[in-house]
């Protein structure tokens, strides 16, 4: 895959966070917990700054690149950059696609008329520029979601369109296309005592070594990495946030931080835990119980292919690594569909019923 830096060479005074197994330094208010000053990747002695895998910095005002400039007094979309299109991600109806360009000295991820993110070729620095006020408000959501997912895929990691929870030091992924209840089911399980582990983006590594050089999973199973610390719920599921810390988001959802959120006891220094199940929720208003079905072979692979957080890759290396990763994942981790009785309201015992249907013990009290 593409070259990457072990740590970004420059040092940034911005807060640092652990996201998807990376140390990310950014002034953007992402939803992860800042790294503690005494943590292994805390400030260097006498320097007061954090060595990071990825550093986000705002592009300097007035800094122009090929395809950026718009003549004074005119309003038009920037010209297409002079580079190879590596990604053409479909956007909403009547919207131009999100494109990733391979330029001579950098990558350019362009959200047309909205925002630009530029990655150096080592994939260690990200510079961003907002085209609208709304883009600036949406910046943290874009950065910790789509942008970091793109960086991870360029680095050769497997990324699922998935939320996740942990229970008894293992992870359950809740995967699927947009609007299929991933965050809602993660919230239901979090209310049942599981730990919210990720929302919308989940990095999975296939028996990769952790930061100490030892296998992240003693069993050799794939591992998942901690992502967002909040679940962004659509309005029908807002009641699941009652009794927990909540805040509105710029995309019209409600960010919920559950009392069980935060770092788990079984996580490694890089936020990794073994991945035990992948579940595709199927909301079902006509059913009063959870119905599980195990997917095998090509059916499991097809479901996972439909759960791409970043779609539309043209780059053959990214496509190959992603497909091979999914093949290995289906061989090593059970993949299920779960017909879930759908609310609102949701039965109080629904989370426990889901865990029982998966054959997972109830969360142990710490």
In short:
The chain has helices at about 135-155, 180-190, 295-305, 315-330, 350-360; strands spanning about 15-20, 20-25, 55-60, 85-90, 100, 105-110, 115-120, 125-130, 160-165, 170-175, 195-200, 200-205, 225, 230-235, 245-250, 255, 270-285, 290-295, 335-340.
Q: What can you tell me about this protein's structure?
A:
The chain is of the alpha+beta class. 18% of the residues lie in helices and 29% in strands. It is built from five helices and 19 strands. The protein has helices at 133-154, 182-191, 297-305, 316-332, 350-358; strands at residues 16-19, 22-25, 54-58, 84-89, 98-102, 106-111, 115-120, 125-130, 158-167, 170-175, 195-198, 201-205, 223-225, 231-233, 245-248, 254-257, 272-284, 291-295, 335-341. The strands form three sheets. An eight-stranded mixed β-sheet has the order 1-2-3-8-7-6-5-4, with helices on one face. Strands 9-10-17-13-12 form a five-stranded mixed beta barrel. The protein has a three-stranded antiparallel β-sheet with strand order 14-16-15, covered by helices on one side. A hairpin with a 2-residue loop joins strand 9 and strand 10. Helix 2 packs across helix 5 (350-358) and helix 3 crosses helix 4 (316-332). The longest helix is centred in the middle third of the chain and has 22 residues, at 133-154. It is globular. The N and C termini lie far apart (41 Å). Mean pLDDT is 86; it is low at 37-48, 66-77 and 210-216.
């Amino acid at each position: 895959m593409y070259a990457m830096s072990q740590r970004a060479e420059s040092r940034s005074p911005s807060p640092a966070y652990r996201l998807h197994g990376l140390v990310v330094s950014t002034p953007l208010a992402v939803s992860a917990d800042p790294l503690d000053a005494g943590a292994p990747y805390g400030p260097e002695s006498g320097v007061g700054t954090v060595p990071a895998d990825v550093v986000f910095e705002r592009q300097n005002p007035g800094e122009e690149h090929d395809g950026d400039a718009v003549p004074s007094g005119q309003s038009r979309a920037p010209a297409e950059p002079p580079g190879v299109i590596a990604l053409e991600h479909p956007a909403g109806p009547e919207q131009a696609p999100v494109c990733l360009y391979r330029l001579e000295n950098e990558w350019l991820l362009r959200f047309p008329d909205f925002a630009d993110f530029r990655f150096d070729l080592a994939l260690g620095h990200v510079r961003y520029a907002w085209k609208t006020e709304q883009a600036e408000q949406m910046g943290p959501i874009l950065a910790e979601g789509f942008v970091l997912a793109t960086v991870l895929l360029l680095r050769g990691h497997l990324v699922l369109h998935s939320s996740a929870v942990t229970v008894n030091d293992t992870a359950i992924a809740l995967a699927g296309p947009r609007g299929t209840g991933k965050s809602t089911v993660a919230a239901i399980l979090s209310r049942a005592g599981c730990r919210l582990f990720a929302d919308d983006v989940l990095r999975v590594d296939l028996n990769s070594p952790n930061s100490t050089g030892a296998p992240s999973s003693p069993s050799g199973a794939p591992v998942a990495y901690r992502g967002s610390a909040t679940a962004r719920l659509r309005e029908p599921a807002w009641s699941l946030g009652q009794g927990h810390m909540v805040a509105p988001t710029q995309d019209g959802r409600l960010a919920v931080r559950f009392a069980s959120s935060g770092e788990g006891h079984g996580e490694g220094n890089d936020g990794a835990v073994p991945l035990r199940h992948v579940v595709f929720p199927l909301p079902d208003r006509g059913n009063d119980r959870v119905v599980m079905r195990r997917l095998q072979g090509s059916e499991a692979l097809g479901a996972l292919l439909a759960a791409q957080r970043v779609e539309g890759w043209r780059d053959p290396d990214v496509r190959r690594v992603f497909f091979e990763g999914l093949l290995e994942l289906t061989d090593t981790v059970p993949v299920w569909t779960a017909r879930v009785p759908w609310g609102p309201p949701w039965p109080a015992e629904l989370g426990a019923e889901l865990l029982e249907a998966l054959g997972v013990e109830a969360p142990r009290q710490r």
